[in-house]
Amino acid sequence: MNRGMRAYVMTRGTERRMDYAFLGESPPRRWWESIAKWLFLEAEELVMSRRDRETTGLLLSGIPSGRRDVIGTRIRYTVVVDDVHEAPALGAWLVRCGLEDGERERLGRALDAGFEADYVDAWLRRAEDAESGNRGAAWREVEERLLAAFGEGAAAAHESTAEDEDKDKDRRTSWVGGVQDPVARREFRARARRLLQDARPGIAFTTHALGSVSGARRAAQALPDDVAVLLHDSELQETQNLSETPGKKPATGAVSAGKAPAPAAHRGRRGRRRTTLVIAAVTLGLAAALGIWWLTGGG
């Protein structure tokens, strides 16, 4: 693991009052806030964002734990990794964890091994007292446990992860697909590899909050960079481009400096001639009506 990369984990304790919180240090910048309204972090979501050469983030939520809270609800983890491009093999595996149930469960088991129920509960109790203990040392211990869990899970999945490298090339445009579509998942992994390797900005995320191509298009239009979106609640069988407006045909016959093209001017002369004839017909009709009114004694 490289020193520049930082990792954070959120979970909850077994007691009712021990709600979801980051163990140890929290991420200094919540870079995923720009798409937060399209995420349902209580479920399985995956986000990878690269804004520039220095900032690459990965968020993975809905990681299942074997622990349960006091009322029997299954506990989950959310992990955040800043500067994940410094550990591309780990990033590639975490992307698979976001797309494949088996890998996500493997990660959950590794996290459970590093964050036993007693340890989590003790840490959350201690965190309630801001003055207790050596906070810096405690934070480092949490991150060390998290990185060890990553290493254990990634090592177990190394062979199957390596098989997918370089199979698909990223198409540099915004697009949407369905999580259930294997082609869309491969393209998503290709986009993730590009974000891990290339400084060009972009964002890739899965979402339970959007369910249609039109919704994904609105999200893409609201974001400044290329977007790859996988919809959980969709029956899409192929990816669709979000960089083009559907039904919009390219303009033809455009003339610079705001001048109207010749066909429009021609239609204008014909329209004026038609208008003159209509006015003449209406005038004659009014005259005839007045004549009849006069003859019948209306005057």
Overview of this protein structure:
The protein has about 300 residues and is an alpha+beta fold. About 40% of the residues lie in helices and about 20% in strands. It has helices spanning about 90-100, 100-115, 115-125, 135-155, 160, 180-195, 215-220, 260-295; strands at about 5-10, 20-25, 45-50, 55-70, 75-80, 175-180, 200-205, 225-230, 240. Strands 2-1-5-4-3-7-8-6-9 form a nine-stranded mixed sheet, with helices on both faces. Strand 4 (about 55-70) and strand 5 form a beta hairpin. It is globular, with a radius of gyration of 31 Å. The model is unreliable at about 245-280 (pLDDT under 50).
Characteristics of this structure?
299 residues, alpha+beta, nine-stranded mixed beta sheet, 9 strands, globular
User: In order across it, which strands form the biggest sheet?
Assistant: 2-1-5-4-3-7-8-6-9
SS strand fraction: 15-25%
End-to-end separation in angstroms reads 104 Å
Helix content: 40-55%
Overall average residue pLDDT? 79
Q: From the helix content, strand content and strand pairing, which structural class follows?
A: alpha+beta
Shape: globular
Rg, rounded, reads: 31 Å
